[in-house]
Amino acid sequence: MHARTWIGIGSAWAGLGVVLGAFGAHALKDALAANGTEELWQTAVRYQVWHALALLLFGILRERRAGGSFPGWAFLVGSLFFSGSLYGLAFHVAPRVLGPVTPLGGALLIAGWIALALGELRRHD
User: What is the CA radius of gyration of the chain?
Assistant: First the structure.
Protein backbone atom coordinates (compact mmCIF):
# COMPACT_ATOMS: atom_id res chain seq x y z
CA MET A 1 0.00 0.00 0.00
CA HIS A 2 1.25 3.51 -0.81
CA ALA A 3 2.61 5.69 2.01
CA ARG A 4 -0.07 8.34 1.51
CA THR A 5 -2.76 5.69 1.89
CA TRP A 6 -1.39 4.81 5.33
CA ILE A 7 -1.40 8.50 6.25
CA GLY A 8 -5.00 8.82 5.08
CA ILE A 9 -6.11 5.72 6.96
CA GLY A 10 -4.31 6.89 10.10
CA SER A 11 -5.94 10.32 9.86
CA ALA A 12 -9.41 8.83 9.40
CA TRP A 13 -8.83 6.34 12.23
CA ALA A 14 -7.74 9.19 14.55
CA GLY A 15 -10.78 11.25 13.61
CA LEU A 16 -13.08 8.31 14.30
CA GLY A 17 -11.36 7.85 17.67
CA VAL A 18 -12.12 11.47 18.58
CA VAL A 19 -15.75 11.01 17.53
CA LEU A 20 -16.08 7.82 19.59
CA GLY A 21 -14.41 9.49 22.58
CA ALA A 22 -16.83 12.41 22.43
CA PHE A 23 -19.76 10.07 21.86
CA GLY A 24 -18.78 8.05 24.91
CA ALA A 25 -18.36 11.17 27.04
CA HIS A 26 -21.71 12.63 26.06
CA ALA A 27 -24.32 10.56 24.19
CA LEU A 28 -23.34 7.22 25.75
CA LYS A 29 -22.30 8.55 29.16
CA ASP A 30 -25.35 7.29 31.04
CA ALA A 31 -25.39 3.90 29.31
CA LEU A 32 -21.69 3.34 29.96
CA ALA A 33 -22.10 4.42 33.59
CA ALA A 34 -25.05 2.03 34.01
CA ASN A 35 -22.88 -0.79 32.66
CA GLY A 36 -19.89 0.30 34.73
CA THR A 37 -17.81 0.34 31.53
CA GLU A 38 -16.74 3.98 31.12
CA GLU A 39 -13.09 3.03 31.68
CA LEU A 40 -13.34 0.21 29.13
CA TRP A 41 -14.66 2.65 26.51
CA GLN A 42 -11.92 5.18 27.26
CA THR A 43 -9.25 2.48 26.99
CA ALA A 44 -10.61 1.54 23.57
CA VAL A 45 -10.53 5.19 22.45
CA ARG A 46 -7.02 5.73 23.82
CA TYR A 47 -5.57 2.70 22.03
CA GLN A 48 -7.38 3.56 18.80
CA VAL A 49 -6.03 7.10 18.73
CA TRP A 50 -2.48 6.11 19.72
CA HIS A 51 -2.37 3.52 16.97
CA ALA A 52 -3.90 5.93 14.47
CA LEU A 53 -0.87 8.11 15.22
CA ALA A 54 1.31 5.04 14.73
CA LEU A 55 -0.24 4.62 11.26
CA LEU A 56 0.58 8.25 10.49
CA LEU A 57 4.17 7.70 11.62
CA PHE A 58 4.39 4.54 9.55
CA GLY A 59 3.10 6.37 6.48
CA ILE A 60 5.61 9.19 6.96
CA LEU A 61 8.46 6.71 7.31
CA ARG A 62 7.33 4.93 4.15
CA GLU A 63 7.33 8.23 2.26
CA ARG A 64 11.01 8.61 3.08
CA ARG A 65 12.09 5.06 2.26
CA ALA A 66 10.73 1.78 1.02
CA GLY A 67 9.91 -1.10 3.29
CA GLY A 68 7.38 -3.76 4.06
CA SER A 69 3.83 -2.98 5.05
CA PHE A 70 3.49 -5.45 7.93
CA PRO A 71 3.74 -2.82 10.70
CA GLY A 72 0.93 -0.78 9.12
CA TRP A 73 -1.35 -3.76 8.76
CA ALA A 74 -0.55 -4.90 12.31
CA PHE A 75 -1.39 -1.45 13.69
CA LEU A 76 -4.61 -1.21 11.70
CA VAL A 77 -5.96 -4.73 12.26
CA GLY A 78 -4.61 -4.86 15.82
CA SER A 79 -6.31 -1.63 16.83
CA LEU A 80 -9.50 -2.66 15.06
CA PHE A 81 -9.54 -5.95 16.98
CA PHE A 82 -8.38 -4.49 20.30
CA SER A 83 -10.45 -1.31 20.40
CA GLY A 84 -13.37 -2.79 18.46
CA SER A 85 -13.72 -5.66 20.88
CA LEU A 86 -13.57 -3.28 23.86
CA TYR A 87 -16.28 -1.09 22.33
CA GLY A 88 -18.49 -4.16 22.01
CA LEU A 89 -17.63 -5.42 25.48
CA ALA A 90 -18.57 -2.03 26.94
CA PHE A 91 -22.14 -2.92 25.93
CA HIS A 92 -21.85 -6.61 26.79
CA VAL A 93 -22.04 -7.62 23.12
CA ALA A 94 -20.96 -11.23 22.56
CA PRO A 95 -18.41 -11.40 25.40
CA ARG A 96 -17.55 -15.02 24.64
CA VAL A 97 -16.60 -14.04 21.10
CA LEU A 98 -15.10 -10.62 21.69
CA GLY A 99 -13.21 -11.51 24.88
CA PRO A 100 -10.56 -13.56 23.02
CA VAL A 101 -10.33 -10.97 20.23
CA THR A 102 -8.95 -8.32 22.59
CA PRO A 103 -5.63 -10.07 23.37
CA LEU A 104 -5.26 -11.05 19.71
CA GLY A 105 -5.52 -7.37 18.81
CA GLY A 106 -3.02 -6.51 21.53
CA ALA A 107 -0.59 -9.12 20.20
CA LEU A 108 -0.87 -7.61 16.71
CA LEU A 109 -0.17 -4.14 18.12
CA ILE A 110 2.94 -5.43 19.87
CA ALA A 111 4.04 -7.23 16.69
CA GLY A 112 3.58 -4.00 14.72
CA TRP A 113 5.82 -2.04 17.09
CA ILE A 114 8.46 -4.78 17.08
CA ALA A 115 8.39 -5.01 13.28
CA LEU A 116 8.67 -1.23 12.96
CA ALA A 117 11.61 -1.14 15.38
CA LEU A 118 13.43 -4.00 13.67
CA GLY A 119 12.89 -2.46 10.25
CA GLU A 120 14.37 0.82 11.40
CA LEU A 121 17.28 -0.83 13.22
CA ARG A 122 18.16 -2.89 10.12
CA ARG A 123 18.11 0.14 7.86
CA HIS A 124 21.44 1.06 6.28
CA ASP A 125 21.51 4.68 5.13
Answer: 16
Strand ranges in 25-107 using DSSP code E only, listed in sequence order: none
Residue 19's Cβ-side half-sphere holds a number of Cα atoms within 13 Å equal to 6
Backbone angles phi, psi at 68, to 5 degrees: -70, 165
**Of 11, 1, 10, residue with least CA distance to 62:** 1
Residue type, 61: L
**Nearest in space to 118 (alpha carbons), one of 78, 80, 84, 67:** 67
pLDDT at 125: 64
Rounded CA gap, 29 and 95, in Å? 21
Q: Which amino acid is at 9?
A: I
User: For residue 1, what pLDDT is reported?
Assistant: 87
Amino acid 65: pLDDT: 86
Which pLDDT tens digit goes with each residue over 10-41?
A: 999 999 999 999 999 999 999 999 999 999 99
